[in-house]
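Recall from the previous chapter that SMILES is a line notation for molecules. Here it describes pyridoxal-5'-phosphate.
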Amino acid sequence: MSDLKIPYVNLKAQWESEKSELMPIIESVLASGNYVGGEVVDQFEAAISKFLGCPFCVAVNSCTDALVLGLAALGVRRGDEVITPPNSFIASTAAIVHLGATPVFVDVLPNQSIDPNLVEKAITKKTKAIMPVHLGGRMVDMDQISKIAESYGIAVIEDAAQSIGSTFNGKLSGTFGEVGCFSAHPLKNLNALGDGGFICFKSHEMAGEVKKLRSHGLIDRNTVEKFGYVSRLDAIQAAVLTFRLTRLSATIKSRRANADLYRSLLNRDYVFVPDDDPREQNSYHTFVVQVDHRDELIAHLLSCGIGTAIHYPIPIHLQPAAKFLGFNEGSFPVTEKQAKRILTLPINQHLKEHEIETIAQTINSFYGG
Ligand SMILES: Cc1ncc(COP(=O)(O)O)c(C=O)c1O
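With both inputs in hand, we obtain:
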């Protein structure tokens, strides 16, 4: 994967740590001959329902599809507007566009979360849903978002792709709105061995609708009620996720400890690290700092064998694909400024304390601190 001294992610280490337990689970799925749907997927849905405290969970093949299907279940269609931040991964906006609706971008706070006050100002008669994104595991202020949504009678669909296990006022991400969408991509805290995702619904009817849509709209082997999609979670991925769910709280605990260590070591005169809200428990899918001379720092860290990432260097409204929406440089100044300063440091659960010390020291000395 990487020859760096400290890679940004370390999926090989994850595999090494669990293969003696995981290999027999994978073999048993292979031996069963059932690779699509079936009991193993039902078991995963039951396990994730229990974890989230949400009775209606549907496994799908990615969070991108979770968002498309979740928006479709809410009835979002051509002519509707969905409010969302421009600093997310492209999939949040892509899902809105795929349904023919219009993404209405709202700028973000210094901590990268969507600004709830601007959300309220962006509401029009066409607003069908608000899609907050809990970026990197940091929770959006769901008190404010829920209050706004309720007072205007608008649905909330949470993009919880990066935030499984994060909480706000003790409540899990993805369980606030009508719909919560999660990713199980290999880089996520609860990760499959390929693409995967799942959706948490408040409504039994919506969950039932999406169960049909994820498999061609079939209601039995031969009858199609509505034209649908192919968006099923494979049995192998479901089995892997059911196993890894049992380790999720340990994963989050390590990541939170890593974040604490960074906070205690990084020189805050040069490195802006947003504080956690006292109401939230951040699961730290990513640890994002904001710095001047970001690109030079990345090159310096790389020369020292340290891998980093940027989530995300090009805001969605400035992507070539979004040109038709008519935005330009200056449309969302906070997002644009952050895009030039954000840097994601390694935070995975396999990092050693001394590696975080090395990263922090390398950063501090780069700035002469
Ligand atoms: C915020 C956000 N939304 C949606 C997605 C899409 O998830 P997936 O890769 O499972 O389709 C991602 C993936 O990284 C994401 O980070």
